[in-house]
Amino acid sequence: MKRALVIAGLLLASSTAWAIKPRIPNEGTPPTNTPVTEGPEGAAGVEPPEDPSRHFNFFDFSYGHKDEFGGPLGDGKMEEKDGQGNVVHVVHEEEPMSAPFVLMLVNFGLLLILLAKYGWPVAGKLAADRHDQIKTALDDAAKLRDQAKTKLADYEKRIAGVDDEIKKLVDGIRADADADKARILKAAETQAAIMKRDAELRIAAEVELARTILTREITAASAAATEKLLRTNVTTADQSNLVGTFISNLGKN
Questions:
Q1: Domain residue spans in the chain?
Q2: pLDDT tens, 15-51?
Q3: Residue 142's pLDDT is what?
Q4: Contact predicate 26/65, CB 8 Å
């Protein structure tokens, strides 16, 4: 469908351009037998301007073998004649006669019919699709605008209460720090008490051990000194008496 519309438009454009091809007046060899007018003072004047519609083809359908002035095409010249058949203007460069203007009207009418039959539904569909796209875009924009308003209100609410939130956060941090401080101090006191008790027990054990060792050493030294004194001062008779006394004491017991 679109290809047919494009081809019809190209045909219409080409036929229109060929039909109204402009002609440069008096191009090439200068015209001959051109009447000259006299000015007010008898001096030679200029040729009056040519009417561009004088040779316009309205209804002549035999234009294919004629030049612009209506003469035969191919003789190398164009001759313009008056009502009596006299040649009044000659151009030595031929221009083919344009197509009749009624064909342009027919082409234009066909183009309008094609556009009305095939182009109007396509244009209507395109317009409807474009309308739907614009409507969808507007709806999306409205949704985005509402979402932006909601987020803005939420941010403003948060910003309004940010001081209270910061105060609550600082108070919570201070309370946690105080609790941690009290816990650490309590743990330190407990640990110090445990260490003090362990130190006291260790010191007591060390003192008892030292006392035991000292007592043992004193006892050993006393026994050694007593033995030495006995060996030095006790005679054989004394030893015999001591043995007899010990035995007699055993017997009594």
A1: 2-20+53-116, 166-235
A2: 444 444 444 444 444 444 444 333 344 344 455 565 6
A3: 93
A4: no
pLDDT at 88 over 70: no
The C-alpha atoms of residue 69 and residue 51 are separated, in whole angstroms, by 13
Q: What local confidence, expressed as pLDDT, does residue 192 receive? A: 92
* Residues 26 and 93: beta-carbon distance below 8 Å: no
Please say whether the beta carbons of 107 and 16 come within 8 A.
yes
Answer positive or negative: Cα dihedral of 167, 169, 171, 174. negative
Q: Is the distance from CB of 35 to CB of 44 less than 8 angstroms?
A: no
Report the candidate in 99, 27, 102 with the shortest Cα–Cα distance to residue 68: 99
* Residues contacting residue 58 through CB under 8 Å, at least 6 positions apart: 100, 101, 102
Q: What's the one-letter identity of residue 252?
A: K
pTM: 0.30
